[in-house]
Design brief:
nine-stranded mixed beta sheet, alpha/beta, Urease, subunit C, domain 1, 21 helices, Hypothetical Protein Pfu-838710-001, 664 residues, homodimer
């Protein structure tokens, strides 16, 4: 009596990738519903099972679908937008402005469909994503029929889909609740990276991941400068500092891990965190070569990812597997390192394990979901075949296999591609819609080409600061009042300095209303002598404002650079439509007020000559609740100063002089 | 009046790769006979030219055919034979024995056809080869319709197609004379590498290349140990030593150049030598990353090669271009290094220049040969397209283009592939013939698996010595006679040592008749005390012999290894069918006789107890004429010893005892 099944893939070489690495020549895989029912020799299988759909896989390999453990899939829509650039120019000059302008639910939906189509064509059935509007991405992934772990990005900065961290986390919780029971989707949280989060945001993301028992996706130690910054700011390397935040109490999948040492590997191992190795993107952005042989020797689970198509520039796991195997050899000086079978394991079973999907996918075993790909084995570029060493099959797949060899793909029992034809997606329609997006993005960027930011980028290294600040500015009727604050028992003075600042503002009529400040700053000592001189350029884009009491929450987008050329140079280069000067003397105290860092500025403005003095109280903030809390403290300090009833000044000095009309 | 042409490729984006890097949207290329007649906008071209064959290239790029500047093309037939192994195990254990057994004219013919088919499918129209039987390779290349620079390999060792260097050079001269006027083939000489040649063989290869004005192909500084060996043997790094030989007086194309310093780059630049960069093979064999950014900064011409398909494992220039661009960024820590356009330039116009074919191919310009490839631009993995930066086209081709995107290929005006169908080669027949070869090679290697060499390889590091020696052995009737030689005015004693050697020979009945010697060697000082002990394993395969006068030219194949385990271990591991012992005391003098290095051994054999003493005179040699010359000198030394009339002993001590029958 024949047992009924739905699909039989027969007569191929079955590369199971199970624990024993069983290879079954002339083998078959039986699918019923969403699951693998049986795996075995074709003759045996065909005598026991019958199915509506029997696919002849003669001359082909039958493999588990590949697992792409790290990507930003909607970025297919910005593939090839800007390449061969410095990371900061690429990111600040092109990716961030484009994302700010274009990333919305439709962008994410379409970009995901395009990315899924590409991934299916290259044999991928499961991927892990970190981006925005993950609910849209989930819906598109289900439409494509793929399996995915989808991590909603959380940042300490405003994101395209969330103005603050709290909004982002709330969105993320809703997303997880909405999608947690879907058979294809693991919804989760993705704090972008330690440097783009605070310890608190990391910790709260980890709490969310633990609450719903989902893996947490993040970037770890991608660049060397990230490690340097971490040591400067926290006295610890990246992973060591992350450990302090408690983030590893969730199951962390860390992309990149290029710059981690053995101590950090042991921390990751101890917490059972997994690594998603992205060799192409690491090379392309000159980040370095991840020490994968050491990571594997420490017993960590290593998966492989393509990273986003804006930094790769495709979603081809054959290229990543091969490069992972090749790089490991030269990085370790050992040509036997990371052999082909292990590279394929990282792209299949270990990839699934890393994403907490080890019970579900990653190998061809009865009971697992039917995530399968079939690829041609007898291609010209993979001829001939030797049988002496059975493992040679892995070498053929990894060292000479290509995405274009993939013929059929099944995910969760559904056929997604048959004979290279996509079954769930309309490829020509996707190409046409993507082309329309690229036309709009082109137009936007071409218009921007004349922008101040672009010109600044072309000139110099930039340091970007996008931040929230809570601040208040008020007239200071009597200098002596400052003492009331500075000598208050709740105040500890950390540092005091005095500057003379000579600012020249360039104003432009570009669409951004950019304002570029050239500042010569002289730090003065107690003898009124110049201690230090430096010049800086600061480009400020329009600010968003929000009022708490009389204090103001500002969101700045600032790009700063050392100005090592004379003012005349910048004037000629930028050709502003208007120029204004502002000279002032600033006394600054860095203080702890009730243990929280604030800056106190007391300014005397000499050009234009403004009467009296001004006081500013300000601090950084990363979340709305924190801002509210800090605004309350600023109110208290105003009371100490006796200025609680003074009206805060909402404009900056430039606007004040403008109102005055005295300036030429 | 319309001008007649043969083929018009129309309506594609023409990527000329000419000096100005002209891009022609909706462009066309006109071919008449073997040449490009015109390149321009489609509308203009179609109003001026008519042709039988007009190919619509809408949505496609029209590019110069790619140049693969370094490969060993017949090695397609051993692709994937043995991977993820140490270089020595791979080379000595697998590649060399397989090549010794299988490389003949038919192997080279078939392997070339398979390789050409693969290269055409990935858009390559020109390649540079270094292998054996290049005349066969030339005939097969012409059958495929491709352009090639074919370098006949020259070695100081015996090669599959030449027992000695002289035979190899004679074959090479004949090959060049036969093929020098062919429109597709540049026949030339390829001294394999400095370490596998002598200064003299390098010099003579260069003379040959200059005589016929052809580029000379060789490998340069592929591995770090090659540099160490060069410094040890010549006191100079590889390129510096090559300079002394005069080889650079020919136009040298050096593959790899992984381990060259700035001084060596300047030498290469000064001689106008070119570099063929092979990134995949260098990574895969753990050789390292070539300093290509420095090489380019020195103004050298850099081409790109796939290397042979046994160490890559395919012939895909898209993978090599991408990897060249990616590796350069991380190697230099600069993501702007080696941008996409430059990578494509290296794979086209600069590749052609490196091979002295700069006037012939490498760009789409009127007057050059019609070597053209057309690839799909609107693939899913290369969507969308941005127009803001015209150079983005190079980024799309290099970072996301694939061999499978190539649709049409022309070489020398002939269509080699149309709509992915090969026009000159029968792909199914090639696949079938290659499969038959792999069956035979499999059988050969499976039989060998039980061999002593394989077992030795599995155990230990090996050092291979395959060499020619000229030697004579004779009975020494009186010890005092040795003085006649050592005190002769033509003799200078370089070193004298005394050993006690305790040898155990393992004999086997394997097809190779292998003989494995375990030697404990004690170096004695003047006080008859042991100065140094060491144990070595030496595997000797059957020797070829050739007689000059009474001296004997021996060709040894020897594999040596330190024996750091006790004799008992090796006995149990190798399970020889017979074991013999040989104990002797050996006095050895290293002498210069008329300035040439010889070894003089005076042996007393104690087990089995052989009467009297024996004298051996021996030296290394690399060529037949040199062997004859050295044999003459050995005759002179025998005269000085008064032994000219003594019959030389043609057998070694083991055979002597065997004849004696005294040994158990």
């Amino acid at each position: 009596m024949m047992e009924r099944a739905d699909i039989i893939l027969a007569a191929g070489l079955v590369v199971t990738m199970n624990q024993q690495f069983d290879l079954i020549p002339d083998g078959a895989v039986v699918v019923r519903g969403d699951a693998i029912l049986a795996v075995g020799p074709s003759a045996d299988i065909l005598s026991r099972y019958s199915a509506e759909t029997v696919i002849d896989c003669a001359g082909q390999y039958i493999l588990p679908g590949l697992v792409n453990a790290h990507t930003h899939v909607p970025m297919t829509l910005v593939r090839g937008l800007a390449d061969d650039l410095r990371l900061d120019v690429w990111l600040i000059g092109y990716m961030m402005p484009t994302e700010r302008e274009f990333v919305d639910p439709e962008f994410c939906r379409l970009g995901t469909l395009v990315g899924c189509a590409e991934m299916i064509r290259s044999g991928i059935t499961t991927f892990a994503d970190m981006y925005y509007y993950e609910a849209e991405i989930a819906a598109a992934t289900v439409q494509a029929g793929m399996r995915a772990v989808l991590g909603q990005t959380v940042l300490k900065f405003p994101a395209p889909d969330a103005e603050t961290f709290e909004i982002s986390l709330a969105y993320c919780r809703q997303f997880i609740e909405d999608w947690r029971d879907h058979h294809l989707i693991t919804p989760t949280v993705a704090p972008h990276a330690p440097y783009s989060n605070t310890d608190e945001t990391l910790r709260r993301c980890a709490e969310l991941a633990r609450e719903f028992d989902v893996p947490l996706l993040t970037h770890i130690a991608e660049t060397h400068s990230e490690v340097e910054d971490s040591i400067r700011d926290t006295d610890q390397r990246v992973v060591a500092h992350m450990d302090v935040t408690g983030v590893f109490q969730s199951h962390v999948v860390g992309a990149h891990c290029v710059h981690i040492n053995e101590h950090e590997m042991r921390i990751l191992k101890q917490w059972n965190a997994a690594v998603a190795h992205c060799p192409t993107a690491n090379l392309k952005l000159a980040s370095g070569i991840a020490p994968i042989v050491h990571v594997l020797n420490q017993g960590l689970t290593v998966a492989i990812g393509t990273d986003g198509p804006a930094s790769n520039n495709d979603l081809d796991m054959f290229e990543e597997m091969r490069l992972a195997a090749l790089l490991a050899k030269t990085a370790s000086g050992d040509p036997t390192a990371l052999p082909a079978r292990q590279a394929l394991l990282m792209a299949t079973r270990h990839g699934a394990q890393a994403l907490s999907l080890g019970e579900v996918t990653g190998s061809l075993e009865p009971g697992k979901r039917a995530d399968v790909m079939v690829m041609d084995s007898k291609t010209l570029h993979n001829t001939p075949h030797f049988m002496r060493d059975p493992d040679a099959v892995y070498s053929r797949i990894v060292y000479a296999g290509k995405a274009s060899d993939v013929r059929h793909v099944l995910c969760n029992g559904q056929i997604l591609m048959r004979d290279r034809a996509l079954q769930t997606l309309d490829e020509p329609a996707l190409l046409a819609q993507a082309a329309e997006y690229s036309r709009q993005i082109d137009e936007f960027l071409i218009q921007r080409e004349g922008s101040v930011l672009s010109k600044l980028l072309a000139l110099t290294d930039l340091e970007q600061r996008e931040s929230f600040e809570v601040q208040v500015k008020a007239e200071l009727p009597d200098e002596a009042l400052v003492k009331l604050l500075l000598e208050h028992p709740d105040v500890e003075i950390l540092r005091r300095v005095r500057y003379r600042q000579y600012d020249t503002y360039f104003l432009f009529d570009d669409p951004d209303n950019s304002r570029l400040r050239f500042r010569e700053e002289y730090r003065m000592n107690a003898q009124d002598q110049v201690e230090l001189v430096r010049s800086r350029l600061t480009l400020t884009l329009p600010t968003k404002e929000r009022q708490f009491h009389s204090t103001i929450l500002l969101s700045h987008s600032r790009f700063m650079a050392d100005a090592n050329r004379p003012l005349r140079f910048y004037r000629e280069y930028f050709q502003p439509i208007e120029e204004r000067e502002l000279h002032k003397e600033r006394r600054r105290w860095n203080i702890h007020y009730q243990g929280v860092l604030f800056y106190v500025n007391v300014d005397t403005v000499s050009k234009p000559e403004l009467p009296g003095m001004f006081i500013e109280l300000k601090t950084r903030t990363w979340s709305a609740s924190d801002a509210e809390n800090k605004s309350d403290r600023i109110q208290e300090m105003l009371s100490i100063l006796g200025l609680e009833s003074h009206r805060a000044i909402g404009t900056d000095y430039l606007e004040m002089q403008s109102a005055d009309g005295a300036q030429s």
